[in-house]
Amino acid sequence: MIIDLDRLKTRHPELPDAIASSLGFLAALALQRRHRPGVALSAEVRGVATSHTVTWRRVQKKAREQVDWHRTTEDGAEAIALGLAHEACQWVVLRRLQRRQRGDWLVKDGSGRRVVFEIGGLDEGSLTAKLKGELDQVVQSPLPYDRAACVVRFADVQGMLVEVAHAAANASR
Amino acid sequence: MQQRTPLADLYARVTDAICRSEVLSAQGRARDAAIAYLEVSHLEEQIAELLPADDPEGALARQGVVTAALDAGDVTRAIERARFYARAEGLSPAFRAELDALRREAEETLRELQGGDEPKVLPVRFTIVLEAA
What we know:
- The structure holds two protein chains of two kinds.
- By secondary structure, chain A is of the alpha/beta class.
- Chain A is built from six helices and eight strands; from the N terminus they run E-H-H-E-E-H-H-E-E-E-H-E-E-H.
- In chain A, a hairpin with an 8-residue loop joins strand 4 (92-96) and strand 5.
- The termini of chain A are far apart.
- By secondary structure, chain B is mainly alpha-helical.
- Chain B has one domain: Alpha Horseshoe (Serine Threonine Protein Phosphatase 5, Tetratricopeptide repeat), CATH 1.25.40.
- Chain B has helices at residues 6-26, 30-50, 56-72, 75-86, 93-113.
- The N and C termini of chain B lie far apart (90 Å).
- In chain B, 38% of the residues are buried.
- The chains are: A alpha/beta, B mainly alpha.
- The A-B interface holds A 14-16, 18-19, 22, 68, 71, 93-101, 106, 114, 142-145 and B 8, 11-12, 14-16, 18-19, 22-23, 26, 40, 56-57, 59-60, 63-64, 67-68, 71, 92, 94-95, 97-98.
């Protein structure tokens, strides 16, 4: 299972070219702090352990100095999470959500089912704590759809993707 | 090649505008970010015209018109659109509550911009003179 950060657009055709390129570039920058193209991503997706290979075109060192560290981590995680969500769940992007809309993306699966998708990234630290923070936010969405959150940690290239059914999210609102 | 629907086209455009506004905002380019947020608000309005209020994504777009107007600093647009959309039939209670909260926030911001809660009314002394017939 290969997640090619330079081909995010082929997985998410509705993602504008510039956004797909930008997210892929930032993910490459974040990964290159410690890793090389072809690194293994271990992810727990809806409770199941999965393994993937992440590839990208190497980015010049100079580019790293021009981008904010925090943005690289957060937006870089989006590229990996969107790649993982497509690879493991067959989700595709419908649209971006605004900051106050309590989710990052509205995605759909092959049957047309909508999911409100929240993504977080961190360089080091607790994946589960980060995931809880993202879940707390996305369950507040007023959309009557299922919710999901995915977090990516760059230090050891680990990820977690959790889905919450709409009824369960509604109960916790 | 498959023809893109008007909604898919608007979703791609609003995605682009939202991402742009986030980047500009993070870079501290407030004026450019405000212009981008206003573009988001107008794109959300076009989506709202395509989808009814009882469609979850139609309701989302109506909320999006108002949140983006607030982020653009256009509080009068935020108040006017929030009042207009709150009257829409079929809007879910959750989205109605969201719109009401956003309207209150916009009205509070407008009051602050106008210099506080005090009404700008000054007492004027006057005399009524009754003339005898």
